[in-house]
Design brief:
With 492 residues, this protein is an alpha/beta fold. It is 32% helix and 20% strand. The protein has helices at residues 10-17, 33-39, 42-55, 75-88, 144-151, 159-164, 179-182, 228-235, 238-245, 263-266, 317-329, 362-367, 380-391, 409-417, 436-448, 459-480; strands spanning 22-27, 63-68, 97-98, 103-105, 111-116, 133-136, 166-171, 191-200, 206-216, 267-268, 278-284, 290-298, 304-313, 346-348, 373-375, 401-404, 420-421, 425-429. The strands form 3 sheets. It has a 9-stranded mixed sheet with strand order 3-4-5-2-6-7-1-9-8. It has a 7-stranded mixed sheet with strand order 10-16-13-12-11-14-15. α2 packs across α4 (75-88), α13 (380-391) crosses α15 and α14 crosses α15. The chain is elongated and about 100 Å long.
Length: 492
């Protein structure tokens, strides 16, 4: 790639030379993400140019598409492309840009299209197409199923293009989303690693694909004025500073749990747990709004594991009980036991035990399937406190609550996104949020397994207690052995 007309920043250079098939370049504002997404296609365009010069045939097979949720938000990408692309291909010049269909057409015949994904079915139009290069600007705004649907079209019948194909993304922090585990940010938050993904085909053949995350850095951008960072710091709150100036993908501005939630500790992949743990479930009822059922188990160290969820409108108690029974049949909670519906009990919000204009309650309908239900402890102040206590790390730096993210995606999203009730009540989360049912169910579960704060014993108190125990031991020994007296404290 020629650098006569453009010089990459240090981290841009790392990202541009990375050989991973899928790459995310993201992090801090001002890290040069947009310029990277413009420049990253130059190797593909150079390949198209060489093939055109060698064969004399237009390289229409070299098709690159850059997506963003809203096409209007690609204006910065388009503006920077109008500087770089005409210098890469002087014969094409600015005439290669077709403003009506938002497409660059290069001398070689290769094309780069700018497209949107703001409609629920926009991605379906790319089914079966061959895309050599696929870009996503602000990929954190794109749903994973949309991303994977489009990326499935990253292929070519031309072996040269198939070998050179790539997916390139940019992102800012903005909440715990699928991109964090997908690109390995949870395991390698500093990035700069190529992660191999081993795949076995139906015929038994083994293949490998690769992903990588490269962290964008504001301080490396020598093209920005020195006071730009200070300007942002003067406007941003604590969460926004962490997100946009420190590149913390685990923060959400305004999220109720933003100061407590650390996904790298709290969200883990599911695995079988011992059947001897203390199991319980909690339900927050909703008939048209989602009801949420959570299964929790506490290990021998008192750590709460949230191992499964059912998150959907309850409709009626009987219908939800039927769905819960199916959940129990398909459980993969423990390798030691298949739990029956009455092997452990659960709690449900009191409203579900009240009558809803009929002779039967929602809770009664659920209990008809054999579930044992009791009223949940609904004290919001105490419940919010217990939720926060569970999210704090213990004195050894270990989590007091672990959530199986692959089985509890709605709970993961709720904890990351739910807002506080500020300014009305900043110490409570929004009770009218679409995420509140999952958080309420977790609150009920935490109240069943409360964290008991233990005061550290001072060294002096501990020493006094030790000597009192030894004295009591000597008294007990003298009582148990009449006519004898202990001669000292040799086991002190």
């Amino acid at each position: 790639m020629s650098d006569a007309f453009w010089e990459p920043l240090p981290k841009q250079a790392v990202a541009l030379t990375c050989t991973a098939r899928e790459l995310l370049y993201g992090g801090e504002k001002g890290g040069g993400k947009t310029e990277f997404l413009v420049a990253c296609w130059l190797p593909l365009l150079e390949l198209a140019t060489r093939k055109y010069e060698q064969t004399g045939q237009k390289q229409h097979k070299c098709r690159i598409v850059v997506f963003r949720k809203n096409l209007e938000h690609l204006k910065d990408f388009i503006a920077k492309s109008q500087y770089i692309y005409p210098r890469f291909d002087p014969k094409m010049g600015v005439a290669g840009w077709h403003v009506n269909n938002k497409t660059w057409t290069f001398t070689s015949g290769a094309t780069l299209e700018c497209r949107h994904l703001d409609g629920p079915t926009d991605h379906l139009g790319y089914h079966g197409q061959e895309l050599i290069g696929i870009g996503f600007d602000q990929v954190e705004q794109i749903d994973r199923d949309v991303y994977t649907f489009i990326v499935a079209n990253n292929r070519s019948g031309d072996p040269d293009y198939h070998a050179a194909r790539m997916i390139r993304c940019t992102a800012n922090p903005g909440g715990y989303d699928w991109i964090i585990p997908y690109f390995g940010i949870d395991k390698y938050p500093d990035g700069n690693r190529i992660i191999p993904i081993q795949v076995v085909n139906s015929d038994g053949s083994k293949h490998e694909t690769t992903r990588a995350f490269i962290r964008a850095r504001l301080r490396e951008n020598k093209h920005l004025p020195a006071d730009y960072e200070a300007q942002l710091r003067s406007m941003y709150n604590e969460d926004e500073v962490a997100m946009f100036l420190e590149g913390d993908f685990f923060r959400v501005a305004g999220s109720y749990f933003s100061k407590f939630l650390r996904p790298q500790f709290h969200f883990k992949k599911s695995h079988p747990v011992p059947a001897s743990w203390d199991f319980r479930f909690a339900i927050d009822w909703g008939s048209t709004n989602p009801a949420c059922f959570l299964v929790g188990a506490v290990d021998n160290d008192g750590r709460l594991h949230v191992i499964d969820e059912l998150h959907k409108p309850g409709v009626t108690g009987r219908k939800f009980g039927e769905d819960l029974t199916a959940k129990f049949r398909g459980q993969k909670w423990s390798s030691e036991k298949l739990f029956k519906v009455d092997d452990f009990w659960g709690v449900i919000d009191k409203q579900a035990m009240d009558k809803y204009g009929s002779e039967e309650t929602a809770a009664a309908g659920i209990m008809e399937w054999g579930f044992r239900l009791f009223p949940a402890k609904k004290d919001r102040v105490a419940g919010c406190n217990q939720l926060k206590e569970r999210l704090l790390l213990d004195r050894h730096g270990l989590p007091q609550m672990v959530i199986f993210e692959d089985r509890c995606p709605n709970l993961v999203k709720a904890l990351s996104a739910i807002q506080s009730q500020a300014p009305k009540d900043p110490d409570d989360y929004a009770d009218d949020s679409p995420y509140s049912h999952a958080v309420d169910a977790l609150r009920f579960l935490c109240m069943e397994f409360p964290v008991h704060t233990v005061r550290e014993t001072s060294p002096i108190d501990a020493e006094v207690a030790r000597w009192n125990a030894l004295l009591q031991k000597q008294r007990d020994h003298a009582t148990d052995t009449p006519g004898t007296m202990s001669g000292g404290y040799g086991d002190a």
